Amino acid sequence: MPPYDQDSCVHRTVDGDGVVLAVEGTLDDALGTVLLAAVTDAVASGSTRLDIDLSSLAAFDDAGTAALLACRDAAATINGGLHYRTCGGAGREALLAAYAGEVPGESA
Q1: Between vectors from CA 85 to CA 94 and to CA 42, what angle results, nearest 5°?
Q2: Could you tell me the domains of the chain?
């Protein structure tokens, strides 16, 4: 599995049988591509759970929200599922934008 260095802004850690991918910086097309590759690697390695930590996300754009949806699709086969870690701020806003119309009572 390829390493993800600090310059990529996606940090990978193993948590038991699962993987945590911490995203930092601006989630745009470039970072979204790195994140999707990390998700694909986690799935291929047999991870039983995948957490994407968006709590340190500074900003996002439309390509970044599309990447979150692509990550969801790529992680669909993980038995323990895909989970997001976030608090207020850009990470929460990116999720709301990505899933607008899919969560009852929420809008971007």
Answers
A1: 95
A2: 6-98 (3.30.750.24)
